[in-house]
Write a structure and sequence with these properties.
It is built from 1 helix and 9 strands, in the order βαββββββββ. The protein has a domain at 68-140. It is globular and about 45 Å long. The protein is mainly beta.
Length: 140
């Protein structure tokens, strides 16, 4: 779309989930690092994964010096409300457990301990992606 005045702001070069590109662990990933390559002034990074079977995405707790948003979505386009699975996500230094069983967005403020992140049940494919908002001039 770069041949229009604002076309340069549209990024379509992310990997799309296709039947033949699932990894053996049942995942397929798209990576937003391309955003920083194409838009170096952007203060955002992230990535996404499609899950077709249970998987431990992150085993250990960790902390960031930036805000992060986590998106948990179903993949049944005819029914965007559908989320046929269960995700276990831990928040805070005490490891408070949250069970995600419907489409959900989680805000993780800078400095908050979080994870592990486990896709416990995946009855139909699920989509997870995260977006990280970095302070001006700071990259991941």
């Amino acid at each position: 779309m770069a041949n229009t005045k604002y076309g340069k702001y549209f990024l379509t070069e992310l990997t799309n989930p296709k039947a033949g590109n699932l990894k053996p662990n049942g995942t397929s990933m798209f990576d937003m690092r391309k955003v920083q390559e194409i838009f170096p002034e952007a203060n955002v990074t992230g990535s996404g994964v499609w899950f077709t079977k249970p998987h431990v995405m992150v085993a250990d707790t960790h902390i960031h010096d930036f805000d992060e948003y986590l998106f948990f979505l179903g993949t049944t386009f005819a029914d965007p409300e559908e989320f046929d699975g269960e995700v276990e996500f831990h928040m805070g230094p005490e490891g408070e457990i949250h069970r995600i069983t419907s489409r959900t967005v989680v805000y993780v403020p800078a400095g908050l301990v979080h994870c592990s992140l486990k896709f416990v049940k995946v009855n139909k494919p699920l989509c997870f992606f995260h977006v990280r908002i970095h302070p001006a001039g700071k990259k991941a």
